Sequence to fold (402 residues):
Amino acid sequence: MEKRLIEKNGDYISPLGFGAMRLPIDKEYEKSIELLREGIDKGINYIDTAFFYGFGKNEKFIGEALKNGYRNKVKIATKIPAFSIKKREEMDEYLNKELELLNTDYIDYYYLHSIDLKVLKRLKKKGIFKFLDKAKKDGKIKNACFSYHGKADELREIIDTYDWDGILIQFNYFDENIQVKYEDIQYAHSKGLGIFIMEPLKGGLLSKLPKEAEEIFKKENSDLSPADWAFSWLYNIPEITCVLSGMKNKEEIEENIKIAETVKPNSLSNKELETIKKVKNIMQEKLPINCSSCGYCMPCKYGVDIPKAFQMVNEEHLFNEKHIENQIKYILTLGGVYNEPSNAGLCTQCNKCIPLCTQGLNIPKELEKVKKEYEKPGYNQLLWLIKHIAYPIFNKYIEYKR
Ligand code: SF4
Ligand code: SF4
Fold:
């Protein structure tokens, strides 16, 4: 993989970065170590984690996985849970804890996790910039960065507020200009910053497309999957340093590396870019709720599984699924047939989740749409029938078959 240069610090970074958040470390610890090392052996030199991922568990895993000489082969990127910090002392406590968990003397790329302008202004008063300066001076961190979940028109101000070394932003062909404008990427790049990308597949949404959209891609190049197209669009942008991907198996690693090796900056033809635009238009027409399934709004105090509820509506519209089948799926998944209910109707409109949404969605208002689709009059009766009659009969049948 041809590495990309960060002008400001002279680091060469692989265009594909390993997002460790989705590795199955709870169920398959050893396999997860193998996967991470396989990615590194094949040329990935940037590993992304955060304290927030399992409250230290993911960082501890990285510390273990990078033993046996792997630490020196990579840049570690991790994040302080900036959004929840109340006092200056907490910043040092987190950093020292994260160094310990990661089993390292220094962190290469240290991010303020999930900030927007309001959060940054609050942190500034608490001394976040002095903390970052000192951590750099002490050699505990090499680069100070931030991951952004805010409004597109506030990013420039954040970039200019401090002497940052890198930014981590949500960018993909569907969300272009939603949280980040391309001019701001160019601006950050002109200042020499590393540009790191998260959500290249929009929480998986761009890896499985409606049939008509998939046909358009196939017609242009039958060898590429929808995910390959999404990554290609990003690698084609010369200002982008590295695209994070949460790879969960060897096949995904191989496929992602192949695309990262193939697509150079400015290498897509106008025709290929037009093809991506056509697919984007189809997706925009069909997607009712622009949720990326990131889960930042969770947990909801009242038990609503927000991303799942949105996913059900989106999938029905994107893939023209039959409404009655989806209605039953909704009841089985969120209705509380064999677990706690987590349906849209539980929303009390407390509005606590609204500021947390990375897509700027008015979540309770969007949940109303879900309710309108799946919790029409008769919902409770249907739920009762499934829970007390259909589901027990089905279980008995399974037992009998066994
Ligand atoms: S507004 Fe609704 S979904 Fe959001 S936190 Fe409150 S109850 Fe949960
Ligand atoms: S509603 Fe917003 S915060 Fe919640 S999963 Fe969707 S995009 Fe993420």
Strands lie at 4-5, 12-13, 16-19, 46-48, 75-80, 107-115, 141-148, 166-170, 194-198, 242-245. The CA atoms of residues 228 and 259 lie 6 Å apart. The mean pLDDT is 93. Residues 291-297, 306-307, 310, 356-359, 361, 363 surround iron/sulfur cluster (ligand 2) (CB under 6 Å).
